[in-house]
Model the fold of this input.
Amino acid sequence: MLGLMSNKNLLISSLIEHSSEYHADTEIVHRVSNGNIEKTNYKETNIRIRRLASALTRMGIKLGDRLGTIAWSNLRHLELYYGISGIGAICHTINPRLFKEQLIFIINDAQNKILFVDLDFIELISEISNEIPTVETIILLCAEKELTKLHKIKQKVLAYESLIENNQTLDKWPDFDERTASSLCYTSGTTGNPKGVLYSHRSTMIHTLAAANPDALDISSTDVIMPIAPMFHANAWGIPYIANMVGAKLVLPGRHLDGESVYNILDKEEVTFTAAVPTIWLMLFEYLDKKNKKLKFLKRCVIGGSACPKFMIEDFHKKYGVEVIHAWGMTETSPLGTVNKPLRKHSSLSQEQKYNLAIKQGRPMYGVKIKITNDDGEALPHDGKAFGNLWVKGPWICSGYLNMTNSDVHDENEWFLTGDVASIDQDGYMLITDRVKDVIKSGGEWISSIQIENIAAGHKKVSEAAVIGVKHKKWDERPLLLIVKAENVKKDEILDFLKDKIAKWWMPDDIIFVEELPHTATGKIRKVELKKTYQNYFVNPHKESDEN
Done:
């Protein structure tokens, strides 16, 4: 016997309809490329989205068509999220920081019919225009009058605002199977071509419902939320969807993410909740210290993308009274998998013990399951000591990749192999110790590069740190520490700082001071490049690194 409940499909269009009807006057704020702040609300945005949807329908866009976006976090990009997915097409957010060859690959792999492009990227599109044959139309995110400087673009070019102005409002959102694909994101492709992760309306809606709850990101209509994680990076961690579901004031920061720009918009718009990778917060801390500023309104900050150093959690709490929510996820997990929220029993911990708990990536949200195994696939205990290959599964975890029939990271029971090495304790709190490809194997023992990096980065004279495993004649591999200085510092100071914080045999065999570290398009350190450069550092004679 089936229940007597309405069988309504879970569709993304329902989110903007809800916010428009029940939070009509709530603000949406966004910063445009020239730095100016513009404001609207959910009701007006819904009208524009319906006009966009009507225009796309008139252009012949059908269920399953892929439409790409190359844009910053701004209002028009938000409208594309809903206008494209709402009619059953697929919103393919493209990271403009990828290499040109990767951009060409993913546009062609996705078979995008239309590209929506911020004016800032017009030269980039001009360069690749002849190499993306499936793209029929380029729609620049601007007004008609701004189409004055067109570069050599092969495709038909339209102005976005003309679509909004010259079309009537869509009467009714179409209804279709909730398993229909809604959006598409590609992995950063650090080891080969990027892989397409195809989200569904169902997976996105369930992820949205789970992510907002108190034991996850704890977002409500009383919050002012600003996703600093870009809208082309795993859908800004799902925050633009959560904002509409709860009706929170939404702030979109645009392209300017330096410390001063982030502080100014946090302060001006009284942001209470935000989310970004650690690199962003390092720039903000530097600005706050330099200008002696405080965070007057910010209450909670999600940190993910890379492991959050302990000193960052402490500084946010001690200096600024901000709660850090350490989280973990991937493009393949929509992206949230685990969130570090304390249990009732943790209230009696000392502050230092609470910090030690907070550096873990947290426990699974409802719907997600995690496990660790050895290299033979045998399950390892959840005792907080054993560490192995991390697997995850759930209703918003990918089951495969676009245009790939076989995947060596998905098993027959729907478990996904993440590529992370982790431990899990008795309460389900997970700690990432490394990526599989980055773990250092020294004399048959494993050394966590992430843990050494996070401790080194806590030194006040260190701006950024990276640890890689380098070939060694006796031990196979030994750790090499590379540091970008914040102030003048010597090797001995760093080594003394590391003592008693890591095992003696984990101590880096050498330290190299560099001007900068290479980063991926999503802000992570490009260790593949570092390993190529320094792979023989301990094998062949080398010059002493700079002591100054």
